[in-house]
Structure formats: C-alpha cells, structure tokens
C-alpha cells in the first residue's frame, strides 16, 4: 500500500491550475509541480489573476498536494550583472507570493552560476539576495534550493554549498530539493547519499525529491533527464532509492521526458509505484 506516499509530476498550467491538478490525478499522481508563468521569459501575469480559492478547495477536497512551484530558468542570484540580479530577485518574490497564495510546498530554485568566480566569492552575494527575497515575501512561503548536476560554474552541485547557504541565511523558510539525476551526474551514489545528507545535517531542511533518471553517466556533470528506470541510474538503483525508508516521507516530483516526449505521463507514475512495491 502506498496511500500516504506522495507521487507527482511537473505539469503545464496552460489550462489553469485546477486542470493541471486534474491532469495529474488522471495519470495517477497525487501532488504537483508547476511554473507560475513561462519558464523562459521574465514577464508574469498579475499575481491576482489566479483562482486561488477554487484551487485550494479542489486540492483539499481531493486530498491532492503538496503543490510546488518551479522558478524560471533565467535566474542567477550570483550574477555580477545588476540588472539580471534585480530581475532574479523580483521574479522570485513573485513566485514566493504565488507559493503562499496557493498554500504551496515551496518554490524550487536553481540558484544559477558563479560564472567561474567560485562559490566562496559568490556566496555573500547569494546570501544577501536570499535574505532580501525572504524579508520581502509572506512568512507562509518557502524557498527551496535545488542541487545541480555538476555543470561548470553551477551553484550547489556540492551539497556542502547548500549547507553553507542554509547556515548563512538562517531561516526556517529556506530548505532544499534533492534531484536524483543531478546528484547522480554530480557524483553522488544514490545508495550512500543518505550518509552525505546526514553528515551535513541536511535531513530536516530537505522537503522534496525530484525523481528523474539520467541520460548521462555517473559524474558526467550533465543535466539531461530520462524516464524513470530507463536511464543510467536504472531500475535497480531507482528501486533501492525508492524503498529506502529514509526518503519515504518526501514527496516525489517527476520531471521526465515521457514516453511520448510530452513530459511526465501515466507510464512513469506506474513505474514508480511498481518500484516502490
Ligand atoms: Zn529538478
Ligand atoms: Zn535537471
């Protein structure tokens, strides 16, 4: 039985929030991740233009959730370009406001790249931006840092950097998201990563899993997702990860290409449920 396990997917909100939740339920999911607008442009709809009450009632009635918001891809909180930094902070404030209004589980963010300057040099800028975002947004919103895949310059491929940022910002509203594809490509063995998480004292702040297989090899430093069990992580390692009781309380969000190339689908959800057993 997997009654309590939360298994969801990143889906489009082109048809509206309720429609996205209904689509997720149709494919066998019971939680969801969305964008608050296009992930590739800065512009956002007026924050009041979403039917929050209808959506919250729907989720409550259907026991559906949590709902995570994925930040857009253009963000870089370590940028030395003041315009890009200002835009990044602005759009993240919007997403945290959105997260608060949908009663969501948090905004999941790739912090960006230090562009060769190194983490140590970029850290203060990132910490300052994180504090500014948290001060300027509702207390009921959560900011979740996502681990990166080890691409050159990307922040937080090393989980130690997440620990350092959590310490420096020191807010219960700051947590993190563990992406299996990113961790695998950054060189974390999914069999032993629970020990790394424990060593860094990162269990309490971990709020959600991005469950993705990888098209690339272990420690490749690349970020290309594959359907669950169909990539380099593979079914055996995925099963081991999914049946590890340490991770069982965490919602799973799939960001996979899908068997028809249209993104997460019923088949991927069924594979996950099958692996969990
Ligand atoms: Zn992810
Ligand atoms: Zn990715």
How would you sum up this structure, described in words?
With 277 residues, the chain is an alpha/beta fold. The protein has a single domain (7-276), classed as Divalent-metal-dependent TIM barrel enzymes (TIM Barrel, Alpha-Beta Barrel), CATH 3.20.20. 36% of the residues lie in helices and 14% in strands. It has nine helices and ten strands. It has helices at residues 17-26, 52-61, 82-101, 119-135, 159-169, 180-185, 193-199, 234-242, 266-276; strands at residues 7-10, 31-34, 67-70, 106-109, 143-146, 174-179, 206-210, 213-214, 225-226, 252-254. The strands form two sheets. The chain has an eight-stranded parallel β-barrel, surrounded by four helices. The chain has a two-stranded antiparallel ribbon with strand order 8-9. Helix 2 (52-61) links the parallel strand 2 (31-34) and strand 3. Helix 3 (82-101) crosses helix 4. It is globular, with a radius of gyration of 18 Å. The termini are close together. The model has no long low-confidence stretch (mean pLDDT 97). The structure holds zinc ion (2 copies). One zinc ion binds at residues 179, 181-182, 223, 225. One zinc ion binds at residues 146, 179, 210, 255.
Which descriptors apply to this entry?
single chain; alpha/beta; TIM Barrel; 8-stranded parallel beta barrel; two-stranded antiparallel sheet; 36% helix; globular; binds zinc ion
